[in-house]
Structures are given as structure tokens and as C-alpha cells.
Write a structure and sequence with these properties.
- 24% of the residues lie in helices and 31% in strands.
- The chain has 1517 residues and is of the alpha+beta class.
- The chain has a seven-stranded antiparallel sheet with strand order 65-66-69-68-67-70-71, with no helix packed on it. Strands 72, 73, 74, 75, 76 and 79 form a six-stranded mixed sheet that branches.
- The chain starts with a helix and ends in an 8-residue tail after the last helix.
Length: 1517
Amino acid sequence: MLLLLGLLCSIWAEPAHGLEEDGGFSFEGDLRLLTVSNDSVYIATEKKLYQLSHDLVLIHSLTQRGILKNPEEENSQEFYRVSMNGAWNVTFTVNVLLPFVNNDTLISCGATEQNCGFCEVLDLKNISKVLYKEPVQVGPLRSISGSVSFLVDVKKDSVKTQTYILTAMENHTKTEKKTDNCPSDLGMINLHNTNYKQDGDIFSFSESSSPPRITAEADVEFVDGFQINSTVYLFSNVASADKPNKVRLIWLQAETSKSETLKSLHGATLRTSDGDEGSKLLASSIIPGGQQVLWSGVFSLDGGATNTELLLFDISPDGNDQTYTDPDFFYKPKKPDKQSEPVALKPKDLRFKKDHMSSVLALRLNDWIVFFIGTTDGELIKLAVDKNYRLTCPKILYKTSGDNKGFPNILLDPVDQKHVYVSFKKQVQRVPVANCSTYQNMKDCLSAQDPHCVWCVTQASCTFKDDCKDAEWLSIPDHSNQKIISHRVMEDSPGNLKIVIETHLTMEDKVRSNFACQFSTSSTPPCKEQGPQPQYPQCTCILKDPFPADGLDITINITLGKTFLKEQIKMINCSNIHGQPSVHLCQQCIRAGCGWRENSCSWATDPAQNDSICSQIDSGMGYSKPEISSIVPRVVSVHGRNDALLTGLNLRNVTRVRTQAEMYCDPKESPVRYNNGSHLTFHIPSTEIKGTVTVCAVLPDGSCHGNISVTYQSSPNCMDIVPRSSWRSGGRQVTIIGTHLDLVEEVTYTHAPAEVILHRTSNPQRLTYETPAAKDGQDSNQVLLKVVNHTVTCQNLPYYPDPEFTTFTAVKEGMDIRISIQKKADDLNLTTAELSVVGTQNGKKYNCTLIPNESGNNTFICEIKGLQNANIEFVQIKYGGKSVRLNKQSLLHLLILLIILPIPIVLVVVLVVYRNKQKQLTVKMNRLMEDLEMDIRNDIRQGFIDLQTEKADLMENVGAIPFLDYKHFASRIFFPENDSLITLCIKDIGQDVEKVELEEHCQIFSKLIQDQVFLTTMVHALEEQKSFTIKDKCTFASLLTVALHSNLSYLTEVMEVLLKDLMQQNSSAQPKLLLRRTESTVEKLLTNWVSVCLYGFLRESVGQHLFLLVSALTQQISKGPVDCVTEKALYTLSEDWLLWQAQDFSPLKLKALFAVGSDGEVSEPLEVDALSCDTVEQLKEKILNTFKTKFGFPYNTAVRDVYIEYEKDGSFTPLQEVDAGSEVIGEVTKLNTLRHYKVNDGATIKVLSKKTHPPVSPQGSVKDDENFSGKYFHLIDPDVVEDHGKNPERKKLKLKEVYLTKLLSTKVAVHSYVENLFRSIWGTSQSRAPLAIKYFFDFLDAQAENMKITDPDVRHIWKTNSLPLRFWINILKNPQFVFDMEKTPHLDGCLSVIAQAFMDSFSLSDTQLGKHAPTNKLLYAKDIPKFKQEVKAYYKQIREQSAVTEAQFKDFLQGESKKHEGEFNEAAALKELYKFIQRYFTEVKEKLASSGAPAELTEQLQHVKNLFDGMKSCSWN
């Protein structure tokens, strides 16, 4: 039932389509859910369900629209999907999407628009297969916000574990409950079954007692949930009417049962700080690994979405087994009176504060924790934290253009662990977790402080650790330190100085042992020889000379395994670093390797001292401390801002302005440009990360004072320009629509970048400016928005000629004057708001008010209020910065116009008459061309329709498969072209049951050839003879196979010896050519041996798939027209057999009545599919084939002995292949078709036997005519000149290329059968290949090793030549070897195409196919790479399979011999073998003598000759 449902549902899957861009995938409808399994990525949107590969390539998509049946019946509604263009009335909205990997299913639950629950179980590897569906509620019905769902494993006992779906649904106490059509008694937290074997059936949340569930009285919004070991963790925001929001954690112990799991509830409250009233959890991520259960959460500090902070908690269960009653969540229906106080959890020493954080994903890499943080303004940030919870500087991994808001979900790619999936409203992006390759040297690679990146020494590149295999690598240590090498200058005793060098790296232990340092200067070695030995990570140099007054330049060369580091140090006397104590002076001291004590710099004593000590210094004591009161602007783009204005007090001594983000990352300083003590100007620098930074004023001593914030926003983004053109004179007001446009400083054009256009008005979404005049020859301009030193490209703005106003008319209307102004048509789309009109009368000007006009934009209407006289002398029209005067037209102008106007009219009339005459001459030709074009269009369209609608709907019920028995199969392989030998070597049926023995001479000869030395010597002797042809070699090998069939073990030994000899002969030549052809006895022997050993596998595993393919091909060919004379067909795989000249045809459904007896009685009607172009003979064949298919046995009369009649007007008319009304062209007669007899759809055909109902005018089959193809034609017209007027349909132009799509549609129809056949051949039953294949492949590998052949391609080619080329190709092309059937030439052509694809799958070379490549290669070009991968896996699996022992294989061969004992006539085979001995007796005898064979063999050979000479033949007792 489930399989049938899966097959039916596959038609609902729409063609896979989607937009893939920039490594992402865009989809239809807004995103609802995103989840990842080991095989695929699954996306649920409002319209569809998608299945993608891990690199976001679409695999399947499933529409969520369909028809709801039984909509009024509670819990009985059935949702059925419809096709892409089908009518639908309901959408299935997915609210739960869970990959159940252990069950290979995808659980999809949600609701229909009637607020009724609905669930489906889909195939995890192919979501188009719906395995089960049920109208049931699992999870929320409406919004998924505030609800979570995931799979939970409940440990029933020490052995058994059950998997359930945990759903935690949002709870709102104030929200008015909507009336649902399908009410449910679910609680807030529930556990649902995942399969029908669990108690209560699939999706049930009940147990044997009352349904277990957890409820609450407060408002609850769930954020996240997961399971670690047996503990389930649930996070939520809980708010009641009189209390602020609190963040709650629930622990559940998943043990024993559903009810026990939910009863085990314990809780905790997460506190962000002491006064965290109103904080809210926005996103959550567990940190995998480690002894503690560490968890990170994004919190909103004020309940909004802006002020956010990332915190780290230890959420390990408290382990308290005492009775616990939670104040917010309770298992019983009523809230208990006595409640426990939840544990309060406080965050660890890690806080990352940044606005707009909305999602988080945490990973653990060694001792590092890596966070991936998404923001609502479209940034993906990477943040690394060392083992001491010290933060490194955040990095931008990905950011969207503008402020494209991200969906709060980040998922790790489980396949390579090197990518994360980030989702947006209509798109999913796959983003690398690190950009290691962007660092070009080791210093940059390791200074980046990215735990994902290592420096691969051998490759000399920055890469992921697992990409640096079998090579030395260096990475950052487990603590944050941006320096690879640091140094300290220490004083042990007065005058005794030493330099301590420390490396901050992580590496393999074997690299650490090879650690050395070398100190050098430009003159003498600086170190004493008796200094301490280097010991990773430190090396020490004790200076042997007094420290120079002017300092010391030292070069340190460090060796780490194969890596060489070089560091140059400028050492200065620490006492020379002096001055007023300040942060700057302290940092200068520490960075020089000195120590800071008592507000002064001296030689270091503490090797671990760093510049954090400098923050304790009270700086700026020599200056008045600056105070900052304001900065203009406070909001800038990520490109910064030039000439920002800072105002405040005591600014006179300020030299620089510093901007820095949180954690003092990447501080940037800008010099002061202008300073008058109360305000100064400076440039705000650019940045990569949006957000708020701190600005302070820097004094000459390096101290920084003041604290004011500046916010960075996205760069301005241009979406549209209105209006979208300008006139050439310029001055048109244009509005740019976009985002952050208030940050634009200037507008420029590409053709005039230096010409600045100042905007008149702007806000974040709109910016208005006036266009400049166009330069000469300039038709358009690219609009550019200038932001600091960055340019944002907007749209192209075309320039058109200025509007040309032609005339105006003024008329009096009531108390007003209405003026209509005419304008020439243009592309400016001028509006009334862009014009002003002033009318002049008697020297006085009157403003004319423009009014909306619906008659188009080439007429403008305005009104002058209160003017009585309509005599307006002229109007003044202003647009942009230009004014146009339009005068009133005089009577003289009108008179001239009336005189001139008729002249062009007369010319036009003459021209029209002339052109009409000309058109009439060509109208007939044009009509013919249109008909021709229409015919070609229809052909192409029909080909397209066939290709898109073709399905593999061919019938698989082919009845019993007519396998040939073993001896007939083997004999057709042994003697494919020699029927006499087949008859001779197969025993008759009567002989099969007899136990027979050979005569004496045959027994002696049989014994002689079972001597390996004799037999191999005889084979070599025969093959040395030029008269011993290839045909003789094949016959000899096959006779030998028959004669030795009772001893296959010996035959195998002989074959191995001969193969080794053949390999030795070819060792100096091309080894890849070995076994490619059958040119020797042993090669034919190998063919026979493989056929014998694989017959069982062929019959049990491959035979059914081969027969189904042959049947499917036969059915597909018969679906379309087939030319009865040439056998070419419209549906085929071979271009050579493509019937592209066929005329139009239509399908017919006929009723066939079979005559019963001789009294005119008939059977029940049998429905037969036919075509209007079928001949009478073809119709008879289709009727008899349909009879056999329906009833399982053939009709009792052959086709030649059947004739048919067509019922017309109550009487039956005989149908004949040729009659008096047949069409004749030249001397060639067309075979009658159903169209010739005007047989209509639904007509009745009577089938009669010529024996019981002799026809009135008997006619033999025209196919019996010796010149059948010369005298008759069917669908392909003869090459004869004829009058097309009689047959207008033959005028249609037919192009072969138009019909090549038929090859592809045929391929689509049979493709599943081809794939099944191929995979049955190279699939391995129970992970093991047949014994013979494993045995022989190991034999070939052993010979390759003996011959010192190391090229793996040679071994691959040997195996391919032995098995696929030698055996399977023979079977694929000749199904009549396996089945009792006839193979038509057309079927042979189709099978040759499939066999070519099969052979190409084993090829090692990649063929580049172009447009001139043959179609038989192009047809399977896209499938071959996939097949090649499967073949490689097949060969690899055979290679890794455990070896077959000699004893195992010997038992197998003896079993095969025993199984088919007595099926062959060994005596007849021995007799035929002796004929070769007789022909080459002397040569064989000389070969025995020359090869050193024992003399007894020569004597036995002579004895056999004497016996055979005395007998006519071998005979049976």
C-alpha cells in the first residue's frame, strides 16, 4: 500500500526548477523551515518543499498545493497534491520538518487552511515519494514562531530505545482562541509516536493511560530545544501579566516512557546580570563536546531586537532528585499550590555585545570555541574564543547587499563541516566557515587567529587541517595571541642581559623535537656559547658583550621541523624609554621587550608581562583632558565620512581621533585636519562590520579621552529612478528610490565624473536632484552616488530631445478659459507637475492652472479662472530651467496648410494602389510559405510535447519470462553461427534420461586431452598453422568446452596456462590490447568459461531486467508509426532506424471480436490500441499481441492464418493488404492502412481463422513476394516523380533533425529499465560479486604483479575486456541467446545504442562530444559520468572482497559440472575435435617432440589415430 502510494505521489512532484546564484539557491514563496540531514538539505516554503544536495543543487521539489477531500468531516480530511497547472483549493503549510535518519524518512507536519492538522512521511532520499499521510495535528497549526520540534530518543530499558517527536508550542493566555474545524486536546509540550508499531499508532501522543503533556498558565515562547545523552533541554521566554519576561530552561530525563519523561521536569532560570528584568532570549546554540554542557544564547537586554548580547552558560543538569514543582510549567491539568524555586544560572566570563544579533551557531575546535552569528541587517559574523574565554576580533564571513534581513537560522553542513547554511526570506546561501586561502603567507595565516586555518608547510599554503594530509602543519595555540614570535629583554644581574624568544604556535610532537634558534648580528655572534639549549617554545641568548648605547639589531632564525622563521629585532636600552607616564609610553616599553615598573621603563623581570598593565595608568597628566560633546554626523555608511565635525572642550592639544569597536579590535586613528580648540574636523574611517563604534580624542602622549559613539550603516543602495529619462537641456527633477540615501554626499555622472550634482532633498528612501544638460552626442548617462571615496552605481538615465510643443487652442467654458496645448510624441513621459503655463492677452499675463488629462501625455489642458475673452495671443511654457513661447496660429497659415495637405494624400493613394497590386502577386506564395512554416512548427512542438510528457508507463506485466534452458543458452554462445554443430552437440530429449558411456576410442581420446601438457602443446601447434583460421580457433575452443564440460576444474587450469602464455607473448607489445578481441583459442575459451560460470547469475539477477528492457523497447517502438517495408519507426533509439518521413497519424481504440465456432458467434470485445497509419498486417499483429498480454497465452491461430473484417453500416468489410483501391505511384503500390479503409476510433474489427472461415477472396501475405520492398511501400514514399496536387499532404517539408527529439523521448521512456539492467549487472548481491568474477579478477591482478605492471589502467582494461566486452555486451546485443524470442533488425539497432552506452561506462577516457558527434553517443552523454562512478565503485568492491580459496572455487566448478551432467553429446564433440587432429596430425606430433613432451604422449596420440582410422565415427553403446 505504501509503495503504491509512493508511486502515485511521484506524479505530484513538479519538475525540479529553482534559481541558483552566487553559490545560493532561491525558491518560490517565503521560507518557513530549513533542515539538514547526512544526504540532503530540505527547505519548506509557503508554496513548495525542496530537496537539495549539500552544495545546493536541486534534486526534487514538491508542491504544497492541492485538493482537500472531505473538508467538512472532522479528522477525515484528505489532502491530495495536484500537478503544476492543476486546479487547487488548499495549501498544506509545513510547521514541523524533521529528518528521521535512522528510518530513512522525512517527517513533515503542519496544517491546511481550515486549521486542521496534517502529516506526511516522505522518503528521505526522494521527497516526491509519499510513504504515509494522515490528518492529525503534530506541532502548531498556525505560526511556527515561538514553537520548536525535534526528535527525542526515550530509553525504555537497557536494550530498547524508542524515538518520539517532541513538540513545544507557543502558549498565549490573552490571545482569543480561534474556533478550529478540527479541535485537539494537545498540551503545550507533547511527545508523538514516529511509527505505527509504537503504542497508539503513528503520530499518537497518548499512552495506555491519559495523554501525557505539560501545560502552563503564563505566556510562553519557545526558542530552542535539543537532546544530549538522555537529557532533553528546552529554552523559552516566560511572561505573565504582572511580571517582566524571564528566560527559562527545562530539563527532562528521556527514560522509561512518555509520561515518565514529562514528569521528570526540572527547571532553571537564566540570568543575564543582577538586574536583568525584561531580558529576552532570541537565539540559542549548544556547544558540542567537552565535559561541561556549555550553551550560548543571544539575549535582547531590553526585549527589543537592537540591543543584543551573546552570553555563555554551563547548563549541566543540577542532579537534584528531590521532588520538584515548577512555578511556570506543570504536568498535571491544574497548577499545583506548592511550587519549587528554579535554580538560577549565571553566565560565564564571556560577553559579546553587538546590535541586531538574531541567530547563533557554535562549534568546538580543539580548545577553541567558534561562534557564527547572524544579524537582522544581513551580516554573518565569525567570532573565535580561546580556552580562557578571551575573544578574538570578529570577522565578516558574508554580508548581503543593502539590509537584506536574515532568517534566524544557521546550520552546519554535516558532510564536510566546512560550510554553514544561512537562510533568508527567499534564498539559502552556503558559506565557507573560513577563508583560509585568502592568506598568502604564514604570518598572515596565523595572525588571523582563525582556528579553522593551519599553515601547510609542504604545500606552502593556508588551508584547512584535513586538507593538509601527510604533511607538516602549524596552527595557532590554544590561547589568543596575534604575534607568532615575541621577545623579552631580561636582566639576571647588573650588566648580565639575556633575550628570551618565545614562539606561539601549535604543531605535531615530532616537529617540536626539531626546534632550534640562531641569533646573529651584522658583525660578531651576540650570544655566549655556554647558554641554555633551545627547548620549545623558548630559546635564550645570553649577551656576551655590554649593551651598545645606540641599540642592537639582532636577527633570529628559528627552525621548526621543515619550517624556517625569521624575526628581526631592534633592541634599545630600556632606560632610554622615558618621559611623562602614559598609556602610550607604557605600550612602547612593553612592545620593545622591556618591563614596566613604578611608572617607568626598565629591563624586564617578568617574562609573562603584557600591555594590559598599561590600562591602569592615569594618562594625560601634562595636558587638559579633552571632552567631546558632539560629532556631526553620528550615523555614517560603512565607507566612513570625510570632514566630520567634532565639538567639545580642551581640544587644542588633540592630534588624532581614534575609532574602535568592541574589544578594542582594529582601532583606527585619523589625523586632525582643522582645530580651533572648541571644534575640529577629521575623517571617519571605513569599516567592514556594521554597528556602533566608540570615538575618543588622542593627545600627544598617546592617551585617548572622551567617549561618544558613531553608528555605521549599510552602503546606500539604488533601486529605481523616477522619472527614468531626462531632456537634453537638463534641469529635470529626478528622484532616486533606495535605502540609506541620506548618506549620499554627491551625485555624479559617468560622462562627467568631476561635475557634482547637489541633491535638493533627501531622506533614507528618496533623493531628489536636477539633471545636468547633456553633452554633444551624449544619449545616456550612468548615475553614480558618491559616498566618501566610494562610488555606488545606480541606473542608466537616457537623454531624449526636449519636448516640442506645436500648437494651442483657447476656448471659453463658462466663466473660465480652457487652453489645450499639443506636443509632439516622445519618450519623456512628461507630467503636469513638471510644467507651468502663463497665457498673455493684451500684454497682460495670466497663470493657467494645469488639470489632469486622460487623453494621453501629448495634450496638456489648463484653465485661466475668471477671464471672459478667449483671444489668447501666446502662451509661455516652462519645464525644468527652460521656457518656450507658443504663438497663436493665423488664418494665412491655415490656408497654406489646406492647399499643401491634399498633395501628399494623392501621392499616398497612388502608392497604396501600386503596392496592393504588388501584394496580390505574392499573396499566394506567402500563404504557401506560412503553411510550410506552420507544418514545421507543429512538428517541432509535437516533438517538444512528447519529450516533456513522456513517462516510463510501459507495461511490466509481461507474463512468464521465456528463458532458454542451459544447454540451448550455452550452445548459442559456443556456436553462434553454426546450427549444425548446435544440433550435433546437444542431446535429444530422449537421451537426457539415459546414463551413457563412450566407446573405447572416444574414451582414450578423452583421457588424452585431459593431459594438460598434451592439450596445451596441441593448442600451440594448431595456432602456429596459418591455415588454422580464427573461425577454426573458435570452433576448436567451443568443442573443447563441450568435451570437457564434465570437468570444469581441469578446463579452468588449461585456460589459465594458455592465458599466461598469451600474456607473455604480448608483454613486450601493448599490454592494454590484451583480450580486446577473440583472435586466439584461449580468448574464445575465456568467453565460453565466463558464460558457463555466470549463467546462474544471469538467470537469477539480470535476466528479468534484460527481458523487461527488450519488452519495453518493443512496446515503445509500436506506440508510434512503424514502416512495414523498411521497419523504421518514429520511436527508436537509433538514428539509422528513425522514421522521420512519416505523415500525420492519430491513435485509435478498436474493439476486436473473435469468431467462435462456425455459426457466427463471437467473443466478448477486446480493446486494442492501433494507429490510423497501421497496415492490415500490423493491425493483426497488434490484436494477437493484445490477446496474449491479456490472457497470458497466444491465440490459437498464427498471423498468416488470420484475416480480419471491419464493421461498417451494419455489415463487415474484409480488410486486405492490397486491393483494387490501393494507391499506386509509378509501379509501386502503397499498402492499405486503416485510414485507407476510413476505420474510425471505436470501430469494431472481427477476427476470423482462414481454416474455419475461408475468405471470399483469399489473399496471401504480400511479404511473401520476393521483391516485396521493390513493389510496395508504406509510410516512406518511393523515389518517383508524382503529381502532388492529388496528395497535398505529401507537399509537407520533412526535416530529419526536427524528429531527433523522438530518440530522446524513447530514451526517457525506457531509461529506468536501462538503469535497472546496468545496476543488476554491476551491483553486488549481498555485497559480494559472483565467485567466478572475483576469482578471475584476482587472477588478472596476480599476473599483472608478476609482470611488474603497475599502471592501474592496464588492470582496469584487462578486467573490462574479460567481462563486460567479452560477455555482457554479447548478451545485451543478443537477447535471443537467453530467451526464446526473435530479434528484429530494428530491435538490434536499439540494443546496439544501449550496448555502446554500457561499454562507454567502463571506458577510462573522457570523450569530448560536439555538435557533430553521432546521436548514439550524445543520447547517453549525461548519464555516462554517473555510470562510470558506479563502475569504479563496483571494481573497488570486488577488489576489497575477501579472496576466493582454491577449494571454494573448485567446489563451485564441480557443482556446475554436476548440475548440467549429461546435457551435451561429448562423443560428437570429441569426433569433431579429432578432425583437427587428423588435419594437423604431423604438426602436432612434431610439436610434442620439439617441446620435450613425454614420449608416452606421442605413443597415445598414435594409438588414438589408429583407433579412429579403424572407425567411421564415435558411437554410443
